[in-house]
Amino acid sequence: MIFENIEFHNVAELESVPGMCGYRLQRFPKEVRNSLGHKEHERGRFYSQRAAGCEIRFATDAKFVRVSLSAVEQDGTVLVYKGNFFHSSYVLKAGVITTLHLEEPPKFSEVEEECLNGYSFSPGIWRLKFGRDCGISFHYIDSFGHEIRPPREDEVPKLKWLAYGSSITFGSNTSLYSNTYIEHAARRLGVDILNKGIAGSCFCDEPIVDYIAEYEKWDFATLELGVNMRGRFTPEEYEKRVRHLLQRIVEKKPNKPVVVIGIYPNGSLYALNKENPITQSNFIFDKISKEIVESMNSRYLYYVDGKDILTDFSGLSIDLVHPSDYGHIIMGENLSRILKEILP
Fold it and tell me: CB-based contacts of 176: which residues, under 8 Å, 6+ apart?
């Protein structure tokens, strides 16, 4: 989305909230996020409002700029980059408008241009990246009289990767959002990532199915499915929802590669009670996902076992579900290698 000559990456809407100044960065349209949920579980409606993977991008010849932002419900972190190069990190205090003063890196003018160029992002692009902590509102940019423009196509990655999934894709339990497995893999692949993960609420809801199938801005997609649906959906309902999701995507995007990722290793795989329904669901849901992919007989549909991505069980945090930063980095390395091998 382009607004006031600024690119808002991974943003579907800039929402003006009554009684609040600024524009809230929304990853999903209002009609999608306000329709999420299954029975009494509607937590996806507020997790979908968090700015995981959203970025503010712009170019300017100004030597310094000021960007005003605010975190909505709780403190949030913003990571600032010039192209692929890390610039700085700031904490946005909840309910307070914070103005970041950003200056052109002096070292950039002291080295040969070749060492700064040739990466996925041009070093002339300012990038403000937000994590999964909270919602973020944009207020203004002051470039002190210098023009601002959005990035050109040749200044950002050519390919866009849409990642749908659970809190693991969303980035939960990482101490730094840029360490999430999808961010790490995207950098290895030199592609742009669109984080559409929804913590605890990856249910293949009808509004999400339609949104992903109709969304025009992705070149390939990964769907991390199953973990949030254990204990809440029967195998029959799981099969129905996953099949519908894949059929709609193939119908609307017949030539776009789609990778279904099985449930990542977690503590329930090793539960002492082998009859535990959650333990059983790990195996049953993965079997269903793989069989659906195979039955659809599409050259652009792939299934990847979660165990081939999270290959070190100690990469989990102590809840034995969510990977730590170390686990995410392992996953990013493995997934980028797998995607390189299977994608056209």
Answer: 79, 131, 325
